[in-house]
Amino acid sequence: MTTAPPEAIPRIGDLVAVRGQRWVVGDVRAGEPTDGRSPSHLVSLQSVEDGRYGQTLDVIWEVERGRQVLPSGALPEVTEHGFDPPERLAAFLDAVRWSAVTSAEVTTLQAPFRSGVAVETYQLEPVARAVNAPRVNLLLADDVGLGKTIEAGLVAQELILRHRAKRVMIICPAGLTIKWRDEMAERFGLEFTIIDTERCNIVRRTYGLGANPFLVYPLTIVSLPWLRGQKAQRLLDEVLPPEPTLPRPFDLLILDEAHHVAPAAPRQVYTVDSQQTKLIRRIAPHFTHRLFLSATPHNGHETSFQALLEILDNQRFVRGVKPDRAAVRDIVVRRLKRDIVDPDGTPRFPPRLTRATPVEYPESEREIHALLKEFTTLRRKRLVNERGHRATDLVTLLLKKRLFSSPAAFAHTIDIYLETLRVRGKAPAAPPGDDVPEWLQDFLDDTATLDDEQLAEAEDDAFARVRSMQPDATPEEIALLERMHRWAVTHEARPDAKAKKLIDYLRATCVPDGKNWTNERVVVFTEYRDTQRWLAELLRQEGLAGDRLALLHGGLSTEEREQLRLAFQADPKEHPVRILLATDAAGEGIDLQRYCYRLVNYDIPFNPNKLEQRIGRIDRYGQQTSPEIYHFIGTGWEHAVDSYEADLEFLARVAIKVAQVEEDLGSVNAVLAEQIQRRMRGELVSSSMIDEAVAATPTPDLPTETNVREQVRRLRDRLDETVASLGITPAAIKRVVDVALELARQQPLRKHVDDKHAVDGLWDVPPLTGSWQRATVGLTDKLHRGDGPPRQLPITFDPEVAKGREEDVVLAHLNHPLVSMSTRVLRAAVSNNSVGLHRVAAVVHDAPEMEEDILVAAYARFVVVGADGVRLHEEVLQAGGWLTASGRFRRPKCRSTLTKLLDDALRAGRSASPTVQARLAQRWPGVADNLQLALDARTKERREKLARLLEDRREAEEKRLVANIEQFKQTLRAALAVDQAEEELALFSKAEAKRMTMSRFELEQYRRDREAWQRREATLDEEKERELAAIAHRYSDQQDHRFPVAVVFVVSNREATR
User: CB neighbours (10 Å) of residue 1003?
Assistant: First the structure.
């Protein structure tokens, strides 16, 4: 009886198959033998499968079913009947080559080829900066509509591909969570999970009561409002250490609409952290990389902008200290629409056109303005302190905002105000003193980001909150309020002069003959849901509603919002909606530009930033027509100073100014908002003062790239280099899919032809079976069209074909499920003979470079990993030589010649005949060893070059880190050298110059910040050493692995025909 040989235990560096996947062994630890049995072995594995970057697994080797140590160094076997067609092997090699994504080179970019959108070259600037930085800290401050979401997705994709990020969190406004999830999935093939209360419940049911969704899901999306809640804070407490540690628990933070977390500082000399500022300030240090998105990051207050920079990169910036200009240029990516041009210099974005629609207000409508002015004057006569004046000013502003919106909105507010005054009776006792509450000072700024429902609730609540700060209403004041309420109710019953003008414009644009609807679309914005409902009813009465009208507001679910957006973005020939009545809930993140270039501001928000956000819905990437921005203006405004028309004309001038501002609106916004508030409170602020105030506003120190053409040229060169080195072309991607479908015995792609898409390069995906059904995810139209089945969308592999058709054509990029599954199937042939690939081809090809009749070459995947199995570099190597007539093997003198011959042969050659294949199989035993030696030599040569390259990268990262921290240290020391008392005095002087009062909160914030400067300066050296150690660790313990994958013979016509 013979004893079975002991099973081979894998060694570090071996390639193994476990649980249906391939892994590289990172560590092997033997346990203690028990009961005379051989010890078991704990084997630590790192995945070498595409799409599972950074995944690790620990297994007990002896108990794993189907475990196998794979041959990692052997070339494929060459037999008489074991040759593949050239196109099949070329597809296989492309699949292997495209999976080698981690590169020590920083000149090539892979993320653009894993994006389901036609990426504009200028959008590559952030990702180009990211690959060259040891830690990514970028503020994407491009103009509204330039594609910051795409830019952020490219950065996230590239970092994930290069194994520099695994755990990614996106924080965004509540209404944008689904948009972010869908865009990351459809455009980049990245499956993010929205973390909210519902998801937490699912996690508890699935994984247990103690499961934390931030640990369960590596890619997450969280809304900023939900993140502020107690539940989210408790979950974060579980995963975040009390102090930042290395390595950090999270890799990449993407913060959308980042200006919301910067201290607002509307009337502050020194900004005080808001609750949102404190929240993100606490979270951000636990992320290695940080990416902030905002078209208006600078609100005109230096310390507010400094606070945002500090949260973004606290190794270079701190609030209260003037930042180094070079450091700001290094982290800010900002381009304006006017600077984006085509190669021939033609502006990419058509200019905006502002249109003023004159309205003749009748005396019956103008009288309400006089009533409101009379009421305000009576109230102010009885005020005795600053707090009362501020409270009355707020009431006046809220009443005027609603009045200038619509009679319906005004009626609602008057009703609420009257109820507050009547029900509460005598005013409750006010707090002692004359301090103006912080909430009252910041009310308009704090409510600027609320959607329509939240805004209405906050404004209604404000009347009750200011009740104690004002005297009881007199009978005369109550009578005035009741008259205004009757006026509003009366005028609510029919269209007023402004509504009639809107109806006339919509009818002339959408139904000019009164019967037939055109394909023109219009979006009408209002700040209030009351106004929206009122206008919708008026349009219904005028026959401008039904399925032609849609309403977008904050009360819709995220799915309803998305369906409405898709409908408005659909071809007018395919969907009937023509008019969109939208509140400012659509102001951020909703794209409406595809078939719409007309926007009507039915009312003018007192926060100008809302205007720019509205305009940005149609003035954005993909707009082909000059956006037309309409607003209303009274015809008699020039004859009065404080008339109804004059106030409306003032707001119209603001709308024009916002539409024409070409620099950073963030700093101008604060100035315009202040002018509006002063005017609406009754101060004498003329329209000309708007221009004067804007002209006097200091330009924020926000670097803007103006030579975008040169930037685009440089980025295009990098993209072309990637295409040349990896061969990522539409034809090559389609070939991979064709071959994979054939090997999997699935139906082939069918050419797509219809009247709408009269272009080549579109394909229909047939019904797929089995596991291949997953490859069709995302190929159906998301827009619900009646009761029938969803329409299947055609695919294309060419970004140029997809450009401008993103809603009804799917770009099959490398991360698309169909392409991704195809590449996985082909790559599996390396260790799975059942795939149907032999990984050997013989190609007939003649070229001047053919020195002999036969060329043989081997391809191998080459991987270099550092400490903890982190991949530092991977690529596909080639090595080969000539088979001479005498039977010798001779290596080529020029490697580029070998590469060109092989690429040309696989692309244009034909398959050798069975007779030639048989002769090559006979010669193989005398060739294999020499080819293996050639591959060894090429591997050694490449490893030596990579060692130098990786060492250079390590040194560059260390030098950059040291330079940043040393510069920051100097900046801090200079700030600390300034006497604190003198600095505080300077702040008080600055406040006096601006006719402001510096509050104790500001002073306390400044003093806390100075203490923080001292702590930061004292710990910077220690922090520098920790960061340097982390960099050194990542590049330490380098090991290389080589996996031969294919053999190719290239034979001349003479050899093929003898």
Answer: 16
